[in-house]
Model the fold of this input.
Amino acid sequence: MKKKQPATPQTRRALDHGLFSPSNLQMEFEPKIFRTIIFVRHGQYSSDPEVLTALGRKQAKKTAKALRELMPSKLHCSTMPRAIETAAIIGQEIGLKARSSDVFREGLLPGTIGFNNFVTKGKTPEQVKEHFAKTKLARKQADSAFSELFKTPQKGQSVEVVVAHGNVIRYWVCKALDISEEKWLMMDVSHTSLTTIRISKSGNMILLGFSDTGHLPLKMRTYV
Done:
């Protein structure tokens, strides 16, 4: 028989605080009541006019097939054309009509001092003021979306899909993990990747996957 290894000081402290008790394992990793939110960045697009490229449409179709197996009950999207088009392709596959909202739109979110200095360098005082006004509005919209989406469930299990943009997806992940929202600048999200967060009844939020592109062939993965 294999000799049992003594508990380390770290493990003993964890056990003393009840972190590894059966009830906590159930709560943290296998909750019976939870909401799953899957964020999808829009597909590759061209900007003038703003439409998905041929590759972007293929990315959306591949993503739709992957999402169909998860049987989502709701589909949200930004009001920007690239998100609406991506959501329409996904909705057709999974049998849901997307509900669009401005709170999911792309925006110039708060950045580090270095980031702000970079984007305002050489600008007039009026342009700098406009920059921070846009940042304030983008943060307000992103926070509003977070409050709408990240509500704790009261019963059952559900899956919702949100088609949005790289900046806001990264920002929401930072808020869900309770780290500085400015850390979004240190992440990257590829087109039609899946970022999945689960919320339990107790309000715990767990990042199950970030910028997952496993449903896309390597040659179809793009970032810009």
Summary: The first strand starts at residue 34 and ends at 41. The longest helix spans residues 125-149.
